[in-house]
Amino acid sequence: MNRKLAAEFIGTFWLVFCGCGSGILTAAFPQVGIGLAGVSLAAGIALMAMIYTIGGISGGHMNPAVSVGLAVAGRFPAGHILPYMVAQVAGATAAGAVLYLIASGKAGFRPGGFAANGYGDLSPGGYSLTAGLVSEVVLMALFLFIILGSTHRRAPVDVAPVVIGLSLTAINLVSIPVTNTSLNPARSTGVAFFAETAALSQLWLFWLAPMLGAVVGAAAWRLVGESGAAQADPTLALKANLRA
What we know:
- This protein is about 60% helix and about 0% strand.
- It is mainly α.
- InterPro entries: Aquaporin-like, Aquaporin_transptr, MIP, MIP_CS.
């Protein structure tokens, strides 16, 4: 179990460091900044790479909502959810701290929103609480549905990390203007601690909505995608520990 938790810590650190770090350090870099498309791609590539790396150890969740959704779908032991959550939030917070240390090395640095998630005044596009809630629930439900489908035994072999990573890229392209894209309570928590905005006061939404969306996505997959005793193929690295 310790190896799995260490893998989740490292994986979540990497995901937050690359996904949020691309927004904090390079998105608006003068003249050569990567913009929203670059940030979206950075997050998707980071997720894809780490799923390939730790999928065979911990399942490569890197997200408390994914752990919950997999448990609801019968692919992950419910008793492992809390330890995974602790490791994921710790990894995300460590990434936030390292990013703050790096970013604060620039003269005149102010953390501002620090890539935190938000609604209303803290939404990049000024979107409401309702818009943020709907966006996070619907996109997380579809993301979990894709995760379950791409790791099913009927899916083509070894393509799941690519499918999941590109799906996160697409999600970011849609929802960054709405909430700055969470779908991941650990990611939201890890950077909210360092923002100079009221991000912590809005953090509840970015725990509630992804969790609710994950449950909806798991229920939808059980209704649409499962048949009989169909299970994830245990021979694939990504799938090896989903039922461990």
